[in-house]
Design a protein that fits this description.
The chain is an alpha+beta fold. The chain folds into 2 domains: about 190 residues, 2-Layer Sandwich (Beta-Lactamase); about 160 residues, Reverse transcriptase/Diguanylate cyclase domain (Alpha-Beta Plaits), CATH 3.30.70. The N terminus and C terminus are likely disordered.
Length: about 350
Amino acid sequence: MDASRLIDVEEAESLLLEPLLGVHAAINTSWLADAVTTAAERGLGALHGLLFLLDASGHLTCEMPASTERRRALAKLRQVLGVDLGSARFDPHARPASSSAMAGGRAIAVRDLSEAMPVEMDVEDARAAQRLLGVGQAWLAPLCWDGDSLGLLVLLMPSSPPAHLAHAEALGRHVAVAISNLREKEAGRKHGEMDAVRWVYDEGRFAEQLALETRRAHRHGRPLSILLLRIQNLVELRARFGRFLTERLLRQVAGQLADAMRDTDFLGASGNDGFAAILVESDQQGAQRAKERLLSGLEAMELPHIELPGLEVRLGCATATLPDDGEEAEGLIAAAKERLDGGEITLDDVEKVS
């Protein structure tokens, strides 16, 4: 990426920051379609925004917005174009412009509205509709995340838009992340005893395991420790960057912790903003070594967001050991929580994934 394009992307991220909060707060794809249109209008000066998602068969389908206002706008657009966008489903390979944008992973601009529509349109009819709508060009932005193609944004723009294609690409990346988060969250609900957001064992399952390990430690006279880790500025991160990017951060932390733990340890959720680990047969020194090992892994963590400015993650981490800090599970947790409020670690130099 050349220097000028890098500047364009940074400007795009800054311009879109506020309207993107709605994109990452969408609770389903219908509300995401609403948020995408709002972000395209406010951030890019688009006249209309259409969200097409790739289905299992490789076809693109138009996602209907949830709100009545957006549905009415889509109905008016359908009347002018003579195309029922709500039921549109097409093979992107059959439409050269769509295929080009998705294959190249870059937003493209087309002057002829008929090239951007998901169905065949008469060229003259398309030009008449284009004049009536005040559309000067259409931007096609691919939705790509983590090497996967998830769909396409079709943005109807005025003749002299206040933004440029780098903004459309930035919006497309954020929408792709939001779609991925929605799908991951739905998959997380199917994990049973797993916390749907963090994809680790939930608090109930963790409490059962800790009670079991505490009894076992007493029976065999062996040490046992726990570790609590909390993202202390989670509320701030959620307010600034949106719920779904923050939840993705939690999952990334969970994955990093799981990779750094021993096979005999047990990782679970703690509250709304943290994690708890059972460190089997670990005394105070062993718990301290585990704490250093886990935090070292987090310092090298790659955060799954898209170059959002001003990201700073503040962590709190504390351990407690049986029997020094308590004879039962409740005492261990209480001791670790008391220490957790006493310190924090800031992760503000992590690598950012685009």
